[in-house]
Amino acid sequence: MPKEELQKHALAFLRQHITAVLATSSLSGESQSAVLYYDVDDDFNFYFISSKDSQKIKNLMVNKRASIVIGFGKMVSTVQGAGEVEIIEDVDFNLFAKIIERIQLYEADQLPLSQVNKTGFVTIKVKPRWLTWLNLDKMTYPETYGKDFQQLL
């Protein structure tokens, strides 16, 4: 399958999901992973909203690299990657609204707003250096089914 077509299918897969694991590490190498709601743009940049004083932000202030995983648990399709992070002090409220809409918020405490609101929000932008897709789900994604990781970026 041509790479552009594979990327189109991968974006559709990513937009069907709402959570990703974001893994960071401190300067000393102590790792930390968190499940976060996300959005992704057409260039495969990932956007997350986090509390300003979270451990992941402390880690990212000293180590601008992170990895991401989408599709975990019982999933047999997964997108994985790693890249450089930009911490954006101003939260894009359009992004915030888009994430809220994507997760179909039904209760105020569904997001950890009380925790995030204590110190304020930041936006985390992950620009992947590499991104792969492993799709073992022939039933749901027959067009991209394969037994090997496929390079997206």
From TrEMBL:
Alphabetical list of SUPFAM superfamilies matching this protein: FMN-binding split barrel
Domain Pyridoxamine 5'-phosphate oxidase N-terminal: 7-103
This protein's GO CC annotations: cytosol
Xref: InterPro entries: F420H2_bilvrd_red/Heme_oxyg (IPR052019), Pyridox_Oxase_N (IPR011576), Split_barrel_FMN-bd (IPR012349)
Keyword Phosphoprotein listed: no
Oxidoreductase keyword on record: yes
Entry superkingdom: Bacteria
Keywords from the named record: Oxidoreductase
One Pfam family hit: PNPOx_N
GO molecular function: coenzyme F420 binding; oxidoreductase activity, acting on the CH-CH group of donors
Protein's UniProt name: Pyridoxamine 5'-phosphate oxidase N-terminal domain-containing protein
